[in-house]
Amino acid sequence: VQGTGGSSAVSKCSAAARGYIQDRFLRLLAGRPRRRAPLIHRGYYIRTRAVDHCVQDFLLKTQSHPRTQVLSLGAGFDSLYFRLKDMGLLHHTVVYEVDFPNVVCQKATLIKRMEELSTLVGDTVGEGLGAIIFSGEDYKLLGVDLSELSELGRALEEAGLDSEIPTLFIAEVVLAYMENSRSDALIQWAAEHFPRACFLLYEQVHPEDPFGRVMHQHFSQLNSALRSLAQYPDCEAQQRRFLGRGWTECSVMDMNEFFTCCVPEDEQRRVQALEPFDEYEEWHLKCSHYFVLTASKGMEPSWTPLLPSVTVPHCAGPVGMAGSVPAAVCARLSGIPGLRRYGHRSVLIKPDVILTTGGFGEEDGQHCRLRNFHVLSKHAGCWKAGCVTKKHPDKRWGERLYHTVSCLSGGLALVVGGRTSPSSAGLGVLWLKFPETCNASDPDDIAVELVNLQPAAEPATLRWRHSTTEVTFKGEQYLFVYGGRSALEPVLGDWYFLHARELSNTVIAVEGPVPESRHSHSACSWEGGVLIAGGLGAAEKPLGSVFLLRELEHGFQWQAVETYPPLIPRYSHTAHVHEGKLLLAGGVWFHASCVPGITVIDLMTGLCLDYVINVEHLEWPLMLHNHSSVFLPNEKELLVIGGGGNCFSFGTHLNPEPVSLSLSSILTNH
Fold first, then answer.
1. Fewer beta carbons below 10 Å: N end or C end of the chain?
2. Among the CATH numbers 3.30.1490.20, 3.90.550.10, 2.120.10.80, 3.40.50.920, which is that of 322-662?
3. Taking the domain 3-297, which CATH number applies?
């Protein structure tokens, strides 16, 4: 548990070095600097921003009081005191920090050794008295085990904590590690002993969904289990916890809500532009699994730092589910490493033959961008897996993620776009040639030839997280390339018609309301046009709109598709059309109460129904984002291949084997 404090200080220090956090003191307290990934930087930015937002609001609301105090529980190597003092916000406030004695001793030694820190604290007095390890005029460090409540109360009294003045308690990922009976007692003790008090809590939530299971397992493996989650698994349970233990007001937000509601839009844009970034799914999932809670009692005026500055739809309520869809692993496909990947594409190149290309995954025991192609073929009702031999050097493939593959007639598929790293320019187009007849009983027989193309269609193809869909206009076949992002533009809203044979950009008139720019959306061919659904829009907000690009005599027309009830905004899902119904599989949304399953939209009536995926027969968390899926209409079966991602600092989760979702019951009943 003590180790988590040091690790978080290093991560905050790395975020500060990249400009996410303005804090010149972290580097003095965190030890040797280590560079963290952009996803970690964002995670620690939002954590610091939430705590600072609430602390500064408390200091602002209580500035008319002659004296106030802040008590940081399990403060570790945090720099909060030094930042507040440097900003001139501690004119009449004393900061107390409590942690294990050895942690506090290390911190006290660092402060005394660093002139930049010791100058801010000033003269020290009364050290070494009981639990008081370090004592300045407005800054006290106490070495006490928080679970020993009577000892904690006695030490705080000796250090001068005054129960009669406004007090802010801070617990930043601390109570979760304690036994619930002890952390509950601490929450109640604070309410009972301090008539004018506020409590700020930041910690984890939702252990039951796939990301939550990976998170929970990570902390258990570190021997720092999250003990609070069994009893307090969601924000509502945490709110009831405080209101039932003496606190009269309590507000709570997960970090997606906090970032949207409490961080000004110009600051959101500043943070989003700091580093090349392409891990939106994991960022939003991390934010849905952490919350900030503020509770208060006896405060005049009332302390409400979590009031939104903008009105947004609240996403904490339950999602109405029309039923469930059973998930089952595919027999004989377990343990095939080449199918453990994300950001890849899977397409039917022949009936019952699926080609999977690209993505990031597992190869020879290593995590890397994948060069190998894989093929699945169905024989006698069972899927078999095999590798594909590629005729031509790998450099033509370029290890791409988030590309598209469109199967055209005559043993040809066109690869469009994709990327290597988020900072590199997008990759262009590539033909894949394969035999027109494949031996489905032996998938290893398939050879694929890679053919480079002249960069004639570069503006259309230097992008990723886009869609490429077959359309027909005046009897000619085109590929409609839409949306996505590039190294320069975080979201694109343009489109191109590529002539299927010549791959030249063709100008075709398009009228009607232009959809919002988006990436990570879905696109399906339907009645000669294209159905676009969801996606991540500008400012990294999920979209719930559905558009039909409809063929007219002289061109195409955008037409909004109304859904009832409205489609819950989502992105990173997959989609298929079957008999006038649009099927959406998985994705990421901001509704924290559950994860997206299968959504069925009747394109005639607009009726939109959500179905939960029943995963009771899976022994591992099924992450339905960054996956690929193939719909098999005869069996009314959806085959999900790969999926997952880098789960913040908790490790990479890759769905270990393909999963079959049986949709026959919902497509019959819908």
1. N
2. 2.120.10.80
3. 3.40.50.150
Q: Which residue is listed with tokens 């597992």? A: 362
Q: Which of 136, 237, 252 is nearest to 180 (CA)?
A: 237
Report the half-sphere exposure of 5 (CA within 13 A, side-chain side).
22
Residue 506, beta-bridge partner list: 497
Mean pLDDT, rounded, for 247-260: 95
* Model confidence, pTM: 0.95
Q: How many CA atoms lie within 13 A of 588 on its CB side?
A: 31
With 0-12 CB in 10 A as exposed, 13-18 as middle and 19+ as buried, what is 101? middle
What is the DSSP track for 69-137? EEEEET-TT--HHHHHHHTT--SSEEEEEEE-HHHHHHHHHHHHH-HHHHHHH--B-STTSTTEEEEBS
C-alpha span between 595 and 643 (Å, rounded): 14
Strands (E), 566-636: 574-578, 581-585, 598-602, 608-614, 628-632
Exposure b/e, 45-75, CB count within 10 A at least 16 = b: bbbbbbbbbbbebbbebbeeeeebbbbbbbb
Rounded CA separation 256/117 (Å):
34
Nearest to 202 by CA among 244, 149, 258: 258
Is residue 287 a contact partner of residue 255, using CB atoms and an 8 Å limit? Answer: yes
Alpha helices in 18-79 (DSSP H): 26-29, 38-61
Q: Per-domain residue ranges for the chain?
A: 3-297, 322-662
Q: With bands split at pLDDT 50, 70 and 90, how would you rate the model's confidence at 8?
A: confident
Query: What was the pLDDT predicted at 399?
Result: 83
**DSSP string across 235-282:** HHHHHHHHHTTT-SEEEEEEHHHHHHHHS-HHHHHHHHTSS----HHH
Strands annotated E in 397-446: 404-408, 412-416, 429-433
